[in-house]
Amino acid sequence: MTQGPSDGDGSRRAHVTIWTDGSSRGNPGPGGYGAVLRYTDPSGAEHTKELSCGYARTTNNRMELMAAIRALESLRRPCEVELHSDSQYVVNAMSKGWVWGWIKRGWKTAGKQPVKNPDLWKRLLAAVRPHHVTWLWVRGHAGTDLNERCDELATNAADGRAGPMEVDVGFDG
Question: Do 5 and 80 form a contact (C-beta atoms < 8 A)?
């Protein structure tokens, strides 16, 4: 794997690049997520892993969150992660620190409204904890290869072509 910054014990963190996307057919409606993870091992060999799953009833934002969550949860050890998403909702909440304000306010927005999807935000924070994550926004549907692949995985999952549809247990709509 490409070696990243050192942990406190002197070991090097593996560098992983992750691309994610979420999709829903209706909002709410059937949805899915897709993620592509890439890393290079010490011998220089590149490895790619694809993840996707469909849900019977959910929202686009929940699927954007699930894509990032499931990709990060799939990492077996602490890594240096570069996560690319076309979701400003996810990228801005994490990179601009919105999520920390929500927590301070008891999961309320600056406008004092309840934050949507707190179950997934909490799960994302837990998934991020062992890693060093850099959040990068990419314009969707702009021809970026791995973003387009994630879109294909997500839409196939939303259409039920990625296996059995799961139930989004945290969705209350």
Answer: yes
Q: How far apart are CA 53 and CA 74, in angstroms?
A: 14
What is the percentage of the chain residues whose pLDDT exceeds 90?
A: 83
pLDDT of residue 7: 53
The pTM of the full predicted model, rounded to 2 decimals, is 0.92
The answer to whether the beta carbons of residues 20 and 84 sit under 8 Å apart is yes
Half-sphere exposure of 6 (CA within 13 A, CB side): 4
Question: Where in the sequence numbering do the catalytic residues fall?
Answer: 21-22, 64, 86, 141, 151
Structure confidence at residue 4 (pLDDT): 46
**What domains can be seen in the chain, in order of their start residue?**
2-158 (3.30.420.10)
Token pair for residue 151?
């879109």
Helix (H) or strand (E) holding 150: helix 145-158
